[in-house]
What does this fold into?
Amino acid sequence: MSATRAATPPHTSRRADGAGPDGARRGSTLRRHAGLAVIAALLLVAASYNLEPFRNFQLATVAAYLCATAGLTILTGLNGQLSLGHGALMATGAYTVALCQNAFADAGMTGGWLLPVSLGAAVVAALAVGAVVGVAAARLRGPYLAGVTLAVAVVVPALAVTFDGVFNGEQGLAVPVEPPPAFLGVYFPYERWQLWVTAAATLLALVLLANLVRSRYGRTFRAVRDDEVAARLAGIHVARTQVIAFVVSAAGAGLGGALLAVLAQSVSPGAFSLTLSLFLLMAVVVGGLGSLTGAAWGAVLLVALPDLTHAVTEQLTLSPAVAQRVEGNLPLAIFGITLVVVMIAAPGGVQGLLSRLARAVSARRPGRRRP
Amino acid sequence: MEQGLALHHIGVRFGGLTALDDVSLRVPPGRVVGVIGPNGAGKTTLFNVVCGFVPPDEGSLTLDGRPLRPRPHRLTRLGVARTLQGTGLFAGLTVLENVMTGATHTARAGFLAALLGLPRSDRDERRLRRHALDVLDSLGIAGHADAAPGTLPFAVRQRVALARALAARPRLLLLDEPAGGLGGDDIAELAELIRGLPRRDTDPCAVLLVEHHMDLVMSVCDEIVVLDFGRVIAAGTPDEVRDDPAVADAYLGAAVDEAAA
It folds into this structure.
């Protein structure tokens, strides 16, 4: 294969081959990603009219989780930094949005611009926490990094309990959210509005993250992941790159947490336990590490799995106490087993499996240049 | 003003071990300088001093007469690039992306431009891509641009590593055992390539070479510095070094005898 390519004059082979799977495209990155986001938005709006309210709510939850998994997959998949603490970064965003919304409500302020401001504040708060953790993380490798992020996962929810004057302890805070705007009509389903709001925020975040992944920053993230010494010699400031990756990732997690809080209209420490952090990590691995599409699969799994186990436990005849315990732990068990199976059978995760499938199909199609 | 890289009386100690002792050498523009010596002579330490991985305990470095306090990630900005032993390629990046990474310091678009996907960032990427393809082209491996490094033969990977270093448009190229793991024909081609680097039309560069492979060193270097136990025991043209009795004693003895036999 290489021999035949080398035989053709380099300039023509260059044209024929394109130049790499990423970024060979000529058009504008922004236009392409924004276009995809608009298509996704139209599909979601169409779906929101055809799905029952509960499904709308579930879809909104997927979107919220997707912000967090997308952030995590950039950090862990592209930059090679393991974080067991992304649940805590989600909590940071969730509590910030709660505090902001409450402050706005107490001040008697109303208006459509309040929620975006609160969400922005949540992202900024998560950014700040992410920057602090990221600076520490950039000095740590492997198990030490895992240890520090684990500590963050445990400490942040505990802070919410300790400072119960502000965060109202285990009870948590209510998140007052305004009803859909009046021009949508009186009978506009609230769940549909929730999906719209969440999807809009998520798609915006995804466009930005996708832009970044396609830019030289995405390449630098991966270079640092693969070989730090070679990266430094190639002119990359390794520590700075790692902090940037952490901060970007934290921003995603913060937005995800904030959206979850807005959806649930409440926030409590129990919702952001260590289990959530582990779930997020498993979701991005099972979905396909390092790809935003993989992060989307992971987010779907995060929402679908508890639903699925609920359906399973309903089929079994169990005493209510046992059923509750099984339902609480079954998702974790299933996720764990899935993770092991995925690692053995398809290390690329769902997304890896799909793209392998797509390649196999396109290879069978006649008239393809590439073997 | 003294052009090129110069090391002045460099000394490095690791605890009680003297890795480099009073080492001075110069790499003027347009020259290929080789550093040879037995294992543990301090060759790699010397490279690490020039790259800033190891700060010297004594002595100083200058680049074009200006004092040089190297930091690894600033080197390419100063016009110095280095290849690593083995290849040190980024396994998860394509060949083209590997080479584009080498020119990271020439990127102008900032973080915001990248995040927003502004045309400025796209233009930057297109320019890097063109440049990387040109470099691959000049080394005759443009056909492998899309490949993952792991799928390529070692000789090609070695060349990709060289392309990544050259993508930085260095004035001085540091080659760390470029012939390691290569066969005879590949080494002959590599020698040709290295000899051509200071004389090529676009981005010519001086070369500082650490190498075990004696034929390669003798055939490409204008000047050779011989290290033993961290000290310079001989320096000069390949012929001078070959005839130096101290070198024969310390290092080349066996090889010269073999060649004569």
The longest helix of chain B spans residues 119-138. Residues 5-79+170-251 of chain B form a domain with the Rossmann fold fold (CATH 3.40.50.300).
